[in-house]
Each structure stands twice: as structure tokens, then as C-alpha cells.
Amino acid sequence: MKTRLSLQDLVKSKFEDHLFVVVSNREPYVHEWAGDKIKCVIPASGLVTALDPVMISCGGTWIAHGSGSADRDVVDEHDIVQVPPENPRYRLRRVWLTKEEENGYYYGFSNEAIWPLCHVAYTRPSFNQTDWEAYRQVNRKFAEVTAQEIGDRKALVFVQDYQLALLPRYMKERNPDVIVAQFWHIPWPNPEVMRICPWQEEILQGLLSNDLLGFQIRYYSDNFLHTVNACLECMVDWETNEVHRQGMKTTVQAFPISVDFENISSESRQARVTHEMERVRRQFGLTGEIVGLSIDRIDYTKGMPDRLRSIERFFEKYPEYLRRVVFVQVAASSRIHIGSYRRLHAEVDNLIEKINWRYSSGNWKPLVYLRENTSQLTIAALRRMARLCMVSSLHDGMNLVAKEFVASRFDEDGVLIISPFTGAARELTGALIANPYATDQMAETIREAIEMNIKERRTRMRRMRAEVEENNIYKWAEDITSTILKLDSGRSP
Ligand code: F6P
User: Fold this and answer.
1) Quick check: helix, strand or coil at residue 381?
2) 294 and 307 in contact (C-beta within 8 Å)?
3) What is the value of pTM for the model shown?
4) Do domains 4-257+473-491 and 261-470 have the same CATH topology?
5) Distance of alpha carbon 488 from its chain centroid, rounded?
6) What is the topology classification, in CATH, of domain 4-257+473-491?
């Protein structure tokens, strides 16, 4: 079993003379003003959930956009803050963006072009020249900051996600000796879909400047290889999953991302979680109802309206469950300046209001909506209270909410319902699979989950816990590190 310590040993023994640098758009800790106080918030991001334990284990520097209102107030003169705040283990270097840069690079090209392009969720991508220029400019800015951090030291730069597709190229242009690896957290579509991006060639060139490029599942890495094969002059070696182009080689492989199983499992056992469960029950007047739980960033890829419609259908078909089952939706917003996200917020609010109006009686209502600022402690309590957890993404690279739920259930109870269009559905063999587009099927699956006996719940949960325990976040990081080592041994010392 891979652990925090085994990863530490591997990195220390093999990369001792290298600086370890993670670069992402989203930062792991955001400082916000709350009245006249500063609070530190952990953003809703699978990338952060996965990478923070890795950085705590390995140390190093994480470079990311400083997006919080108080971020500038807590950094030193080099724009560094040590994190986690309560027990610092690594450096967070903040990159400052102007409103125009954030608008074009983050809201515009990253989230109105690449995000909908890569997710089959039927939201049309829009390609805007000004956004593209901002995307280039900000990727250059991240490369400059990364180069400053590295100086003339040997470094391993680990780039995260689709906001930074051009960064590897800008890094290699400055310093061809630096090892650059990138992990693409979201799906990669087939070549036909990718073709519509007017700048696909430049994006692919950026990604092929990596020594190693990782995807969540084999299907996405295969899609990527087919895309470069169709679009660029290059040689794809289908045996070794390597792309050779202009004297450079990129290895393209799948590394399913995961969570810190041990930590989540042991945190979940703590007495303070048990106390919080009692507090949550009192707050929402839960007196023995079966709890269904969903936790999402409010995003059109997560299938929230589809899930709500299936819950409505469930109560319609099985009214005997009225007053006996309550669904809790925990949600966090991001990207709210984008029209499609604002419309989604309104749609979710309306559906919740409509379903609660239709079915509530006395002080009982079928849906509890916790929008924004739900603490990690409350989330831990809800995970333990839940008989079922529903993940209904229309398309999702992995979905770590599912793995966190499994990791937290040390009592080996609880049913996971998961969409087949998530990476996680391929690994979690004890889950019930339900297509979010098929409202009736999903409603039936809810019933099946609720009526499942304890013996079967245990068997399924045990199986999933073994899967997540074995394939934990340290295994993911070690697999990537070992692959880089193999590549590096073929390079000059
Ligand atoms: O996992 C995909 C991802 O887009 C990450 O890159 C990102 O941090 C997370 O989802 C949340 O999105 P955002 O950072 O845009 O709020």
C-alpha cells in the first residue's frame, strides 16, 4: 500500500536535488476578508483535494492564481504564504492577474471554450480571439513566475489542467532541461470534437512540450493520441504511448486520480464528527429519516437539474417514502460571471423550490439545500449520516466526491449511486450505476439504494473501500513520479 511516507521516501531519494513545483490556476488555500477578519477557505476543487496531501507529503512550491480578496494581505515580499495555515508544510506562491486577464483567460477561454469543448454536456463552446490572446498572455505570465521560482536549480514542474495548456511550451523554450509533466483533470474528447477549436494546433503543441502528459482514464489518453495523430505532423508510437515530434518525445498515459483514503477515513471516525451529526440533525429537524446526499460545485456538467428531476419522480412513483427520506444538496459556486452558470443557479433554485412546495408537509420537506460556506466538518458529518450518495455528472473526468464518500465510510455502510459518464464509475465496482439522462431509471435506482439490505450494502462498500484504499492519492503520485524517473533516466544527467 502506498502511503504519505512511501511517497516522501521516493521523492527524497530520487529527486533530492530537484525543486518540486506544482502549477495550477486554482490555489489550495484562499484568503478572504470577512468583515474586518481574514478567513482561509479551501476551494471546491477536485484538483485541490488530490494535490494538497501530495504537497504536504513532498514539500516544495505550489504556484497558483491569488484569487482571494485578502490574498495580497497575507503574502511576504516574494508573494509567498506558507500553507496549510495551521501547520505549514509547503510554499504557496501567488500569481496576480488583472481583471482583464482573469476575464479573458479564466472566464473566457478556459471556461467558455475549453471546458464545454471537453465535456459532452451540450453547452456550446465559444471561441473568442481576445480571450485566446489573454489565455496565451496568462500562460506566459505563469511560465515567468515559475522560471523565477526555479532560478538555475534543477526542477520538476508538475502543471495542472486545461487552464495551462501552453505553459509547458513556454517553460521548455526558456529552459529545455527542466522536467515538465502535466495532468489533465477533465475528459479529452474525440478528434472530431476537438477539431472545432480554431487554435487546436497551438494547444496540442503546448501539451506536447511536456515530457509526460497524464489523463484520468485510458479512453481520454487514447482520444488525445488520436487527436494529435489527426492534426499534427508527428509520429505516434501506439505500443509505448509516445508521441515523437520535432526531436521531442511526450509519453501519454492514464493515471486515475484519487484521495487520501487513510486521512479521510480516520478523520471521519472522530468524536467531533459524531457531535456535528447530532447538531446537523437538530438544525434540519431530521428525526430518523433516511438521508440522501449530493455534494457538487454548481456546474452544468454535474447534472444537478437531472438529479432533482429524478428525485421528484421518485417521490411521485413512491409516495410511501414521503416524510421518510430527505435529500441534502451541498453546493459551492464558481465561475458565476458566466451566463450559463448563472442560468444553472436559477434553474437549480427553481427546481428545489418547486419540489419542496409540491411535497413538503408540516415542517418536513424533501430537499435541504446548503448553498455556500458548508464547513468541512459539516460535510464529514453528512457523509456519515447518508444512506446514499448520488453523483450524477453528465460528464466528469473522475469525480472525487464519490471517492471521498467511500473513504469516509469506515462503518462499511452507505450506497453510492454514480453516473456511468464519470471516470470514477470505471473503478468503483460496488456502486449502483444510473444514467442521469434517464429520469425514471435514476428514480428506480434511488429506490433500489434505499431498499438495499445491510448485508449487500456492506459487501459493496467493502469492495469499494478496498479499491480506493489500494488506489489512493499516494499511489497516483508515485506512479507519475516513477514514470518520470524512467523517462529521466533516458535523458542526460
Ligand atoms: O477538476 C477540474 C477543475 O476545473 C479544476 O481545474 C478546478 O480547480 C476545479 O475543477 C474547480 O473549478 P474552478 O477552479 O474553476 O472553480
Assistant:
1) helix
2) yes
3) 0.97
4) yes
5) 28
6) Rossmann fold (3.40.50)
Residue carrying the nine cell digits 484521495:
259
CA of 124 to the centre of ligand 1 (A): 19
Nearest CA to ligand 1 atom 7: 45
Cα dist from 238 to 146, 225, 227, whole Å: 33, 8, 13
Q: Which three cell numbers stand for residue 452?
A: 438495499
Mutual orientation of helices 376-385 and 271-283 as an angle, nearest 10°? 80
Q: pLDDT tens digits for 93-149?
A: 999 999 999 999 999 999 999 999 999 999 999 999 999 999 999 999 999 999 999
Ligand 1 pocket at CB < 6 A:
26, 45-47, 161, 185-186, 297, 334-335
Strand duo 242-245 + 235-237: pairing:
antiparallel
Instruction: Mention every residue, 6+ apart, whose C-beta is less than 8 A from residue 228.
Output: 204, 208, 234, 236, 243
390-424 pLDDT, tens digit per residue, is 999 999 999 999 999 999 999 999 999 999 999 99
- The neighbour count for residue 13, using CB atoms within 10 Å, is 8
Helix %, strand %, coil % of the chain (to 5):
50, 20, 30
Note the residue count of the chain.
Answer: 493
Q: How far is the CA of 277 from the centre of ligand 1 (A)?
A: 29
- Structural domain boundaries of the chain? 4-257+473-491, 261-470
Which CATH architecture fits 261-470?
A: 3-Layer(aba) Sandwich (3.40)
For residue 115, the ligand 1 atom closest to its alpha carbon is 4
Q: State the closest ligand 1 atom to the C-alpha of 44, by its place in the atom list counted from 1.
A: 11
Q: Residue 228: is its pLDDT beyond 90?
A: yes
Ligand 1 centroid to residue 186 C-alpha, Å: 9
Q: What is the DSSP letter of 285?
A: T
- pLDDT tens track for 207-222: 999 999 999 999 999 9
Q: Which residues touch 159 (CB under 8 Å, ≥6 apart)? A: 23, 24, 167, 168, 180, 181, 182, 183, 210
Average pLDDT over residues 216-237: 97
* Mutation choice for ligand 1 from 138, 161, 396, CB with most ligand atoms inside 8 A: 161
